[in-house]
Amino acid sequence: GSLLSGVTASAGDDEHYAALRGLPKSFGQEAAANALAGAVPSHSKDGWAIATFAGGCFWGTELHFQRLDGVIST
Hints:
The protein is an all-alpha fold. It has helices at 28-37, 58-66.
């Protein structure tokens, strides 16, 4: 089974991630700086909790996480 078997999300398959309300502009620059520094922080500079996962196929895994309630950035 999948790592996320049995996990459900409120967003339908036809709902686009960019259309979700309340998203920050981007954590990209902050994430890149952390990666270059070898840092694995538990919170962003803005105070958001950060969870770090490893997956064999990032794009498939990312889509599942994007559709979970409470996930604001992947």
